[in-house]
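Exercise 7.
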Amino acid sequence: MLKQRRAEPAELHALWELRTRAIRAGCAAHYPSDIIEAWCAAPPPPKLAPLLEAGGALVEEEDGRVAGYAILNLETGELDAAFVDPAHQGRGIATRLLAALDAMAMQHGLRRLFLSSSLNAAPVYERAGYVALRREIYPHRSGIQLESVYMEKMLPCA
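Solution. The predicted structure, written as tokens, is:
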């Protein structure tokens, strides 16, 4: 049975490993292998630990193992990460995580969420109510240029 909870800063390494598995499995049909390798080789950015400490990260777990996670910057409204372990995809995990982040964002007074989505993930975000505003090249800190989709979602006023 899946259970949702806040992510803990001590889980950062495990979340990053899940992210790497998800990129390798989900992005292969959308990006060249050299881009995926450089993308996966990058260590976690320094900004992630403070986002977890601020309480903006959620995980869904099953039998004590993380099946997916999502991280929201509660100050800016940027959805920083949302990944589901390839072994758990197709079970509605991303949908539940994104809905929970919407509720969290509204509790923090946010009315607009935004992200730069990988090409393969854009349909997931669209189903969650995000609107694609433009295709763009995202300058990844590893030095690669990732083709992506800039998206936003307007939240209802309380």
